[in-house]
Amino acid sequence: MPMTIVSGRFATAFLPTSISISKLLSVKFAAQRRVVFVSRSIHASVSVETNSNVESVIEKEKKREEKNILACPICYSSLALISQPNGLVESVASGTQLQCNTCKRSYSSNETHIDLAVASGSKQYSEPMPLSTELFRSPLVSFLYERGWRQNFIWGGFPGPEKEFEMAKDYLKPVLGGNIVDASCGSGMFSRLFARSELFSRVFALDYSENMLRQCYELLNQEENFPNKEKLVLVRADIARLPFLTGSVDAVHAGAALHCWPSPSSAVAEISRVLRPGGVFVATTFIYDGPFSFIPFLKNLRQELMRYSGSHIFLNERELEDLCRASGLIGYTRVRNGLFIMLSATKPR
């Protein structure tokens, strides 16, 4: 999938082609004042042209730097291109190799996504993941997620992806035009909505599940006349180890994902790290307050449930607000509908 690589050189500024140095030297002027006037005019013209060229290059460099926000998930340093098939410069093709500028760890891309998980490429090492994480890595659940699974959330008060997208846009107004990370994107229903809206300069669809990202890739290619495909980048990564430079992301969206994260506090802290000052975090989840909060020993039961499943049960809104505040986010606000809650918080300026 596409991504931009930053080069660090400025183009050399030349004299305008309309000015011939040999002709200037062969001209004889009758008065010294005229010679001075012409030379000053030429100097001014060259200076304006040179300044214009430099400013243009600087502006292009700034735009490239804004797009190149991917980082090593180990040391959070920027990544450099070390090999790329077909000589492509502006996009990442299958087989592209990226290397951390600090620890020299290498990462690669395949047909569907860039793999920036910490343990990606390891052959001997493996570690067990929580049940909720492994569930969404399975090919069957990944296939069914957008074909019936997600639609069942309406019984919990979720208004549906299109309505949720419109609600999220209200929170995201301060950062429209910037980049956005769709965290735990699943099969990419919101990632595609963000990309199709053309409201963001770049959309990163991020998930830990390889099969979810494959579904996202396939569904994206099934849509005819999809605009700005090059703005949508699929990335495999751990939500608690985001592969982005510190303070480089304008917005993070997490749809129906917060309760599935093994450690919501670690994940939201990472989101706070990558957000720019003024950046916005928007998330939806289930909240089991009301009569559920009066069940004796429910908090203890929640701890046991998390131990085995990896899923988190939120029992009241204050808990979510406290989670955001503890992670350095401010301006907490929310919308409720039954068990559904959409929350938003901002990175301080």
UniProtKB/TrEMBL annotation:
SUPFAM superfamilies documented for this protein: S-adenosyl-L-methionine-dependent methyltransferases
Subcellular location: Plastid, Chloroplast, Plastoglobule
UniProt entry tagged with the keyword Transmembrane: no
GO molecular function list: methyltransferase activity
Cellular component, GO annotation: plastoglobule
Main location as per UniProt: plastid
All copies of domain Methyltransferase type, residue ranges: 181-282
GO biological process assignments: methylation
Keyword vocabulary terms for this entry: Chloroplast, Methyltransferase, Plastid, Transferase, Transit peptide
Similarity remark: Belongs to the methyltransferase superfamily.
Entry protein name: Methyltransferase
